[in-house]
Amino acid sequence: MARYMLLAMNGPTAGEGDEDAYNKWYDEVHLPDFRELEEVVSARRFRTLRGRVPGMESPWPYVTAYEIETDDFEGFSKKLAEKMQSFAPTLDRSCSGNLMTLEITPLD
């Protein structure tokens, strides 16, 4: 079965209380919705080390890694597009990025 990694790089809008609202939505709504997709093996969130690692600056304060396994990537993509329609107003969509990758490490 093919393995994929979706990296979602984003952060909250800049208003007062936005980061708390963003994290609450991500943890209590978005991740559970994503995990309902049978192809999603895991979904884990990370905070970037902004300003702590010289030469490795990031415009995103958060990264989420979604591990996906499927032999029907097109079908999964359609399902994902249908399910993930709504986002929290505190998710800063103006500087969000996504990267879908296909694992090339040989399987044991």
Task: Describe the overall structure.
Helix content is 27%, strand content 28%. The chain is an alpha+beta fold and 108 residues long. The chain has one domain: Alpha-Beta Plaits (2-Layer Sandwich). The longest helix is centred in the first third of the chain and has 18 residues, at 18-35. It is globular and about 45 Å long. The two termini are 13 Å apart.
List keywords for this structure.
108 residues, alpha+beta, Alpha-Beta Plaits, 4-stranded antiparallel beta sheet, globular
CATH topology: Alpha-Beta Plaits
CATH class: Alpha Beta
The fraction of residues assigned to DSSP E strands is: 25-35%
Tell me the CATH architecture.
Answer: 2-Layer Sandwich
Order of helices and strands: EHEEHE
Poorly predicted residue ranges? none
Q: What is the strand tally?
A: 4
Q: Strands, helices and their partners?
A:
Layout lengths: L2 E8 L7 H18 L4 E8 L14 E8 L3 H11 L13 E6 L6
Antiparallel strand pairs: 1-3, 1-4, 2-3
What's a concise summary of this model?
The protein has 108 residues and is of the alpha+beta class. It contains two helices and four strands; from the N terminus they run βαββαβ.
